[in-house]
Automatic annotation (TrEMBL):
<dbReference type="InterPro" id="IPR036390">
    <property type="entry name" value="WH_DNA-bd_sf"/>
</dbReference>
<dbReference type="Pfam" id="PF09339">
    <property type="entry name" value="HTH_IclR"/>
</dbReference>
<keyword id="KW-0805">Transcription regulation</keyword>
<keyword id="KW-0804">Transcription</keyword>
<dbReference type="InterPro" id="IPR036388">
    <property type="entry name" value="WH-like_DNA-bd_sf"/>
</dbReference>
<dbReference type="InterPro" id="IPR050707">
    <property type="entry name" value="HTH_MetabolicPath_Reg"/>
</dbReference>
<dbReference type="Pfam" id="PF01614">
    <property type="entry name" value="IclR_C"/>
</dbReference>
<protein>
    <submittedName>
        <fullName>IclR family transcriptional regulator</fullName>
    </submittedName>
</protein>
<keyword id="KW-0238">DNA-binding</keyword>
<dbReference type="InterPro" id="IPR014757">
    <property type="entry name" value="Tscrpt_reg_IclR_C"/>
</dbReference>
<feature type="domain" description="HTH iclR-type">
    <location>
        <begin position="14"/>
        <end position="76"/>
    </location>
</feature>
<dbReference type="InterPro" id="IPR005471">
    <property type="entry name" value="Tscrpt_reg_IclR_N"/>
</dbReference>
<dbReference type="InterPro" id="IPR029016">
    <property type="entry name" value="GAF-like_dom_sf"/>
</dbReference>
<feature type="domain" description="IclR-ED">
    <location>
        <begin position="77"/>
        <end position="249"/>
    </location>
</feature>
């Protein structure tokens, strides 16, 4: 693991940026809270130096500190930066017209998610503004790998080494194993559990032969049926295939893409 000592010969300004980046990079989904001792160890500097950097990052709202637990976590400004980074992803701009078209065709909310290394993360959501009651999905939401429709699509098409938790999940759940096989055969997920009366169907988006995102239709369990041959499912598949073709997919059948 690289530490600040590796950059000792860098100029002071560059070293400052690198040290700040090292601190921020220390936080993960598995370890969202760190002590000053843990940050000091990652930084490879003295505790006084680590404290000086954490104080500056707190002033910039990039870190927050809990007096009760004496632990640090990422601050609210990181969410703003993350939202800006997601908005700039090429897949977001490429998918926009396809999602807008699907909203008009399906009359339901359409969501785009990418794989963040541990779970699907929503990067764009388009609501149907014609409905009296609108269903909105917050951009930045992290979806459950095993129970969400988009999570199951990633389970079906990502290389196993990119989903470390998948093998254990498949051993524990015969239903999930069957559904992953079904998704590969049909090219979409229609069997995710309903939450609060809502239902989601999802399909993969490929760049070349690799999955790059998932697109989903979200609506009430009445409006979004669990059928692979429903008009909504067919519209979703047509949209994701068109987008995948634009991104260089050569039409590999879903069963072979996984």
């Amino acid at each position: 693991m690289r530490t600040a000592r590796d950059t000792a010969e860098s100029s002071p300004s560059i070293q400052t940026v690198q040290r700040a980046a090292l601190i921020l990079d220390s936080f993960t989904v598995a370890r969202p809270h760190l002590s000053l001792n843990e940050i000091t160890a990652r930084l490879g500097a003295s505790k006084a130096t680590a404290h000086r950097y954490t104080k500056a990052l707190r002033a910039a709202n990039l870190l927050r500190y809990d007096d009760r637990t004496a632990l640090y976590s990422l601050g609210p400004q990181v969410l703003t930066l993350a939202a800006a980074a997601r908005a700039a992803l090429p897949i977001v701009s490429a998918a926009e017209p396809y999602m807008d078209r699907l909203v008009q065709t399906a009359g339901q909310t359409v969501v785009l998610s990418i794989w963040d290394g541990e779970s699907p993360t929503v990067v764009r959501s388009v609501d149907n503004t014609d409905h009296l009651i609108r269903i909105s999905v917050r951009v930045g939401s992290r979806l459950d790998l095993a129970t969400s429709a988009q999570g199951r699509v990633f389970c079906a098409y990502l290389p196993p080494e990119q989903v470390p938790a998948l093998a254990k999940l498949l051993r524990r759940s015969p239903e999930l194993r069957e559904d992953v096989d079904w998704i590969r055969a049909h090219g979409l997920s229609v069997n995710s559990p309903s939450d609060n009366g809502l239902h989601t169907i999802a399909a993969p988006v490929f760049e070349g032969d690799a999955i790059i995102a998932t697109m989903a239709i979200v609506g009430t369990s009445v409006d979004v049926p669990r059928k692979a041959d429903s008009p909504l499912a067919e519209a979703l598949l047509e949209t994701t295939r068109d987008l995948s073709q634009r991104l260089g997919n050569n039409g590999v059948p879903p069963a072979e893409a996984g």
